[in-house]
Amino acid sequence: MLIRELLPVVKYSDLVDPPDSCAVCLYEFESGDEIRRLTNCRHIFHRTCLDRWMDHDHKTCPLCRTMFVPDDLQDSFNEKLWAASGIGEYYQGDDDDDSLVVHLQDVMEF
Questions:
Q1: Where are the domains positioned within the chain?
Q2: Which of 45, 58, 73, 79 is paired with 106 by a 20 to 30 Å CA distance?
Q3: Which residues are 44's β-sheet partners?
Q4: Cα–Cα distance between 76 and 101 in angstroms, integer?
Q5: 0.85 exceeded by pTM
Q6: Domain 2-107: which topology?
Q7: C-alpha separations of 15 from 32, 33, 74, 90, 104 in Å
Q8: How deeply is 15 buried, as exposed, middle or buried, from its count of CB atoms within 10 A (0-12, 13-18, 19+)?
């Protein structure tokens, strides 16, 4: 669920010069559709299409495979992940040991 917090939901009618259709379902967008815009690559999809994609444990854009979480937000995202897991207070790793954070991110459901 945390990753969804990073990906804004907007109305299709609010977008400037958007594509005509969703690359996941291939249906054309309609003005009232809820759209998720990826922050790294700026691709857009129906909210339900991208949410379903994430439900299958995908962490990258369905179109270009760019990671959902931008590099500049990765540390903050990892902290939220630890807090959500309930074990954040027990982790006392040093700055050089990021491997534990990466492994947790790989196995947690978003």
A1: 2-107
A2: 45
A3: 37
A4: 11
A5: no
A6: Herpes Virus-1 (3.30.40)
A7: 11, 11, 26, 43, 35
A8: middle
pLDDT tens digits, one per residue of 72-88: 777 777 777 777 777 65
Token pair recorded at residue 10: 């907007």
Cα distances from 54 to residues 24, 45, 91, 97, in angstroms, run 12, 12, 26, 27
Count of residues for the chain?
Answer: 110
> Alpha-carbon distance 16 to 58, whole Å?
27
SS3 assignment for 2-53: HHHHHCCEEEHHHCCCCCCECCCCCCECCCCCEEEECCCCCCEEEHHHHHHH
